[in-house]
Amino acid sequence: MRSQAILLAIPSVAMTVVGFALFGPGSIRPFDAAQIWGGPTTGLRKLSLRVAVVERMRGVDSMHAVGGLVLRARADDGAEQLVHCRTRADATCDVEIDFGRELQTRIWATITGDNELETLASGEIVGASQWGGATRPARLVGQATGDLRVALYAHRGIFAAPFRDELVAEVTRDGAPVPGATLTFHADAAELDGALPDASARVVTDVAGRGSVGIKPFTHTLEVSITAEASGVTGAFDGVLPVIPGAMWLDPTLIKGGTLRVTSPVPREIAYATLATGSARLWGAAVTLESNSMGFASGEVPWPTIDDSGQSPLWLTLSSDPRGSGAGTVGWPIPRPGGKDHEPFAREERAFRDKLLLDGMPSAEQRDVARRRRARTLSAVALGAAAVLEGVFLAETSRQKEEMGARSWARLAIAIATIVLAFAAIEVVVMWKTAG
User: Fold this and answer.
1) Is the distance from CB of 218 to CB of 265 less than 8 angstroms?
2) pLDDT tens digit string along 318-351?
3) Which end of the chain, C or N, has fewer beta carbons within 10 A?
């Protein structure tokens, strides 16, 4: 009687263990990993980085705001720093690591949650070898005619509709600047500063042969033409204005006062900003935007404290996503606040998109696979042990019956084979459910 009770109990115990493995440690569930994005790391005292937390479920990634993060950074020469940040709703946060001296060694990092129980990323921060995208030259492409040579420049490399920026025309003759030349600007679907009744604008060139006019484009495809006249000699230029669809605008009037003001032509809640030179990422932040009465979204932040020599040109990259992958991502050239008026009359546009420096996802995926593999092993051991026990007790029961004169070897073999088949089928289901 006791053997029969055990025979009935063994499958229940085995199924309990398998159920625990199937719906507990071996279940398919999402897991998190952290990533570090930034630029070059060698030869810098301070690193500006963007940290993102990614959740993966069945091979599909999504952003996961986990709250507080702890980042430990260590250089090969022993320098070590610890910083804290808290993920925003978009699951990213920006950090600065100040080592106090320029580093020429490798840098290692570990990212954990606030409780420091789960490692989200660990490894070497591999600095970006290529930094900064292609430049958009300030000089516009077009057709110039006449004895006076007219060249046209976008003062900040590009334009964003419908925001004002400056066009600069340069007039030369035989390679020498022509001061006092009269420039007449024409543009369709745009508003020119000081426009005349015929919608044109006129300016006179200075001693360097240059004249500028403010223009506010209303469309993304905009032709502009200029005629120049000096002492009866003329010239002309026809070209297309470089207006970037969806580009967020950086207000140039507030920069020298120490404010970075961003305006989006469409409603957005956040703008991602990256301040960089051609060799370093100096600062990154997310600028909160609020809608205004004009249907735009705008926000501002104070000029950041940056660590550079003050000699390299600066660009502020604005994007609607943390990776800068959108078509409207632009890099506005900017002067330093309080700097002397020695900036060139025109600067090229250049966007600096963050590079992936450390990815914790491969390690996190390996840990998840190992977790499910351990669960499968546990269930296989439990099922194997249950099958052996079931066979032993069946054999014992058969032996007892044989002693009583009832031979049932064929029935015993069939019963054992059935048990093995049943437990094997359960194991197949377990492996299928936990294999992911």
Assistant:
1) no
2) 999 998 888 889 999 998 776 555 678 899 999 9
3) N
Integer CA distances (angstroms), 394 to 11, 290, 364, 384, 405, in order: 13, 76, 45, 15, 16
- Tell me the per-residue pLDDT of 52-97, one tens digit each, with 9 for 90 and over: 999 999 889 999 999 999 999 999 888 899 999 999 999 999 999 9
Q: Is the dihedral of CA 361, 362, 364, 369 positive or negative?
A: positive
**What dihedral angle (degrees, nearest 10) is formed by the CA atoms of 291, 295, 296, 298?**
-30
Nearest to 433 by CA among 18, 90, 5: 18
Distance of alpha carbon 431 from alpha carbon 436, whole angstroms: 9
pTM for this predicted structure: 0.82
Question: How many residues would you count in the chain?
Answer: 436
| 357 in Cβ contact with 73 (< 8 Å) | no
Amino acid at site 99: F
Strand-by-strand arrangement of the 233-241 sheet: 142-146, 233-241, 222-230, 182-187, 201-204
- E strand or H helix at 419, and its extent? helix 409-434
Q: Which helix (H) or strand (E) holds 112?
A: strand 107-113
